[in-house]
Amino acid sequence: MTPAATEVGPKDPVQILTPDGQRLPHEIYDAYLGDVDEDMLRGFYRDMALTRRFDQEATALQRQGQLCLWVPLRGQEAAQIGSGRATRPSDYIFPTYREHGVALTRNVSFSEMLRLFRGISGGGWDPRENNFHMYTMVLAAQLPHAAGYGMALSMEQRGWDEEKLAAEGNAVVAYFGDGSSTEGETHESMVFANSFNAPVVYFCQNNQWAISVPFEVQSKVPLVERAAGYGMPGIRVDGNDVLAVLAVTRWALEHARSGKGPVFIEADTYRLGAHTTADDPTKYRMTEEEAAWAPLDPLIRLETYLRENNIVDDAFFEQLAKDADQMAATVREDAMAFPVPPLAKSFEQVYAEAHPLIQEELAWHLQYEAGFADSGENA
Amino acid sequence: MTVFNLPDVGEGLTEADIASWKVAVGDTVEVNQVFVEIETAKSLVELPSPFAGVVTALHAAEGETVLVDNPLITIDQEGNKPAPTGTPEPAEALATAAPVASEEPGPLVGSGPTADSSVRRERTNRPAPSAPPAAARPAVRASAIADTISRRAASLGSAVTREVDRAKPAMASFVDRVLAKPPVRRLAKELGIDINDVVGTGTQGEITREDVNSYQAQREAEHAAAPTYWAHGQLADARVDRTAVRGVRKATAKAMVDSAFTAPHVSIFVDVDASRTMEYVARLKKSRDFEGIKVSPLLVLARAVIWAAARNPSVNASWVETPQGAEIHQKRFMNLGIAAATPRGLLVPNIKDAQNLNMKELAVALNDLATTARAGKTSPEDMRGGTLSITNIGALGIDTGTPIINPGEVAIVAFGTIRQKPWVVDGEVVPRWITTLGGSFDHRVVDGDLSARFMADVASILQEPAMLLD
Predict the structure, then answer these.
(1) Cα A288 to chain center, whole Å?
(2) Which of A79, A308, B147, B219 has the greatest count of CB atoms below 10 A from its CB?
(3) Within a 10 A sphere around the Cβ of B338, how many other Cβ atoms?
(4) Domain ranges of chain A
(5) A284 touches chain B (CB under 8 A)
(6) CB neighbours (10 Å) of residue B85?
(7) What is the predicted pLDDT for the residue at A105?
(8) What distance in Å separates the CA atoms of residue B74 and residue B97, rounded to the nearest whole number?
(9) Confidence grade of residue B86 (pLDDT, cut at 50, 70, 90)
């Protein structure tokens, strides 16, 4: 069933939906899209549209001084929704700091995600609830974590037969970007995962820019070609094509969970906006380049496909826009209403159990706070 | 009526320029409707409105700069159109909640108070937190905690400033030039400022961009005033600039008057061939032992003065009036004062027990003293108890002068500039490094022959530093 790695072909990006909304047949990956019906297609569009609307609202909140920082994902919705929807709830996800769309597929609350960016929490959600790890602000730091988690999974699943692995086996999806691909941790993680045949799917969203460094400065070859060096299959996929991303990620997860080891996916996409709200891309990239990518927008091609095949009508989009605005309003309200936890709370989160040094420092802190004339107001 | 203050839209930005307003007073705005485009140090950014309502005031004109946390726009969420005059009803102004809203509407930038993000919260007079409250815990426990905290402090981030303070002397001895970031050095260079002349106010004594700018501003103010300086005198009421005498200037004046009119000064001068001193200094500079330590002829002079004072101890003394009559206190220690021009004026901090320092220790002490003085951080303790002083007027290119004795002392040595001059050696005129030493002495304590012997001894060392090895 699973084709050999060589058949996957790292050279040409896998594409199922063309930018003008035509669906292409694919000899390998059609088999991974058999269950995709009209409901699912509408769902993918909805996921992407809601994610984009959330991204917009969070950007606005940052501009209004309500978030310290925001990391926009506009343009990368298909790569995130397609890959996120390919996972099982029991799989474990290691995101970067930009995987808002993946978070949606894991049922992580958008509102909760803003705690981190509001600067009132080191995390914001319980990773154990949705198997969606904390956002990692340090580039590529999550990749060794992912390899370790994968190694633990393979220990746990040692001795399972093929059938059991296919049915109950778990895998890890490790997200990273083209910028992270040049970090040492990426290399180490891939070496370990391959040495231990860990069920890790390395999902790289190559959005072409590592802040202001263009991709061609970071690698002379498509990143996917590096996979061969580690001895794992590499797949290059059109990252703005939600169906292609879904199919290749499903293939990769199947490969990984069946005990065959890690897979590298390079999803070609484009960051339509800024790296973060503290960045201004007009300083380092050309308007022509942005204009060339604009028609490749993942939402446009799916909308075209849905409309041309009469899967949706105008009412669908109108309703969706209303729902999205409602969601955004709720997110805004929730975010503004989050209580700001006292700093003293942080001392509880250093060690699982009480620790004498931390206790001492807490006592010092409480007394320091109590020394202010206005103490009690915001201790 | 809600005032929206300019947020920090980047990471750590402090201000932004208004690029263009997208709304005008009286316009209705929706939540998230872009109302202004601003330009920050990092980027051009569109700001979406956080409120829906009617715009009642724009607080800055296009092109103006607004500081973060200062008012940008006022929006009436009730949707009331502003009064045609543009001035608010008194009741309306009172009803506004934010403190900034008490400002009058209309362009405010440049006239309103600057929001100070680093306003200190007022403290009660409870004890400092290094000693936890006794009531809260048994006393032993409390002091144990305090101990632990102070022990930990060195390794914890909370004690960064203390760490930095401790690191300062270490840094100073490792780095043989002033600390400044490359862009700041470049700025100084572009402005034609010798960065060594600028006083650093950074956390580690480094020179910041502001330091260079303020140095330049001061220089400009002085230089720019020069061409018109006399012109101002033409105005009848501006013929004299009056400055109140305060602070260091006042203290200096009193000390000089006290000294000049209580101690009868005798001043003597001697020209010295300091070529050997220059060679010696050059050798020290290259020596590994003195790596990272600033070495100058002043160091040799300081050593010479200490050496010569031991041979002529009456110069290291003071005249003390007592109820039983005057006494001369001759000191068996030397607190060597070095007169330093500082931003606060003339100060004479001294190196305590300078007689116990070897050449290297003395070099370090001189550096520290100068650095502290230039940074304006000389403490009163540093200036107390001096026994003999040096004034390095040569640093300003002056040959010599008649220095006034630092009160409480009986001798001062003025170190003139060292420059190459024609000098007769063995009947031949050759270029040599020549300096002039000046000395003033309190004739009540130091007689003429004694002061002459002292000056000759100091000069002999400058002529031949190897004599120090005796």
Answers:
(1) 27
(2) A79
(3) 23
(4) 5-337, 343-379
(5) no
(6) 6
(7) 98
(8) 12
(9) very low
Q: pLDDT at residue B149 above 50?
A: no
Domain spanning A5-337 has what CATH number? Answer: 3.40.50.970
User: pLDDT (tens digit, 9 = 90+) per residue, B46-56?
Assistant: 899 998 999 99
Residue with tokens 């050449």: B359
Q: Which amino acid is at B380?
A: P
pLDDT of amino acid A89: 96
Specify the length of chain B in residues.
Answer: 470
Please identify among residues 344-373 of chain A the ones whose CB lies closer than 8 Å to any CB of chain B: 357, 360-361, 363-365, 367-368, 370-373
Share of chain A above pLDDT 90, in %: 85
B430 strand-pairing partners? B423
Helix segments in A294-342, DSSP class H: 298-308, 314-337
Alpha-carbon gap: B312 to the closest alpha carbon of chain A (Å) = 57
Return the amino acid letter for B194. Answer: D
Q: By C-alpha distance, which of B38, B42, B32 is closest to B12?
A: B42
Residue A172, H or E segment: strand A172-177
Nearest chain B residue to A365 by CA distance is B129
* ipTM score over 0.85, yes or no: no
* Inter-chain touch A278–B11, beta carbons under 8 Å: yes
Residue B338, both tokens: 């070095």
Q: Under DSSP, is residue B36 helix (H, G, I), strand (E, B) or coil?
A: strand
Copy the structure tokens of residue B284. Answer: 């020290």
**A183 vs A269: CA distance, rounded Å:** 20
What is the secondary structure of A95-115 as a DSSP string?
--S--HHHHHHTT--HHHHHH
DSSP annotation of B409: -
Residues A98-110: pLDDT tens digits? Answer: 999 999 999 999 9
- List the structure tokens of A9: 């072909």
Please give the domain boundaries of chain B with CATH numbers for all domains: 2-102 (2.40.50.100), 166-232 (4.10.320.10), 248-469 (3.30.559.10)
Note whether A63 contacts B48, CB cutoff 8 Å: yes
Residue type, A170: N
Higher pLDDT, B170 or B404: B404
3-class DSSP state for residue A233?
coil
Determine the average pLDDT of the residues in A340-366: 89
Q: Per DSSP, what are the bridge partners of residue B272?
A: B435
Q: Does A117 touch chain B (CB under 8 A)?
A: no
What single-letter DSSP state applies at residue B156?
S
Sheet holding B53-58, edge to edge: B2-5, B71-76, B53-58, B28-29
Which pair of structure tokens corresponds to residue B27? 């316009």
- Check if the beta carbon of residue A293 is closer than 8 Å to that of residue A272: yes
Nearest by CB: A371 against B5, B47, B129: B129
- Which residue of B32, B124, B136 is in closest CB contact with A60? B32
Lowest-confidence segment of A217-231, A307-321, B74-88, B157-171 by average pLDDT:
B157-171
> By CA distance, what is B130's nearest residue in A?
A364
CB B211 within 8 A of CB B343: no
